User: Fold this.
Amino acid sequence: MPSSVAYFLASTLILQPVQAEVADRLRQAKVAPEVISQAQACVASALPTLVQRVGDDYWWAVTTAASVWLGLTPLEKVVADVAPSCRGTVDTLRAS
Assistant:
């Protein structure tokens, strides 16, 4: 699969919705805007890994996106899966 297609799918189906949800939940928790930006940047840093995973497993991308959208998979789990280095973001999301 061409990497541009994997990039598009990873960004559109998973990364953008996760970033939007992270920002919304952190705003609701009245977290400082700088922290929200840092959290979004942390999640965005996982894009290369995410593109690789989507390229290797289309089904994972589709089911993950659908599960988050339907509320079947907690956002914290997706963030932890795609960006394990974002532990602080995951902890903040769990607390909010």
Summary: The first helix runs from residue 3 to 28. The mean pLDDT is 82. The two ends are 38 Å apart (CA to CA).
